[in-house]
Amino acid sequence: MLHNFITGYTDAMIMVESQYLYEDLEFAKKAEVSESDLSEEAKGQIVSDCTRFYEANQESFEDDNSAGIDFYLTRNRHGAGFWDGDYPEETGKSLTESSHRYGEIHAYFGDDGKIYLA
């Protein structure tokens, strides 16, 4: 289900990116970064990217939540993802290539205290 894919992606993004967001001096006092901190623009980009990837590749994975996590990790070239052995080799390679076409994204706090993506 697309919703589970987006949830997995968003959870992975927040978990990984929060370490960098905490380095932002103005907002470092936040106790925890969550989905509620996302700007409308960031939410829109997440939904758009995830929907396009999911619709093009959903036949290649069984667990939508895990695939969402792997899409985030792979597109940003982290140390895990579609290529690390959880998928048949050719499937993992194909999903990795598809993920890389989306390019890397990084989160940052805007002046309004909301999270944006670049």
Mean pLDDT: 89
Number of structural domains: 1
Quantity of strands, as a count: 2
The helix content, as a percent range, equals 40-55%
What's the alpha carbon Rg, rounded to whole Å?
A: 14 Å
Overall geometry:
globular
The major pleated sheet works out as:
2 strands, antiparallel
Question: Spans with pLDDT under 50 lasting ≥5 residues?
Answer: none
Structure class: mainly alpha
What is the strand arrangement across the widest sheet?
1-2
Number of helices: 4
Short key terms for the protein model shown above:
mainly alpha; about 120 residues; two-stranded antiparallel sheet
TL;DR of this structure?
The chain is mainly α. It has 4 helices and 2 strands.
Fold and architecture overview:
The chain starts with a helix and ends with a strand. Strand 1 (107-109) and strand 2 form a beta hairpin. A two-stranded antiparallel sheet has the order 1-2. It has one domain. Helix 1 packs across helix 2. 53% of the residues lie in helices and 5% in strands. The protein has four helices and two strands.
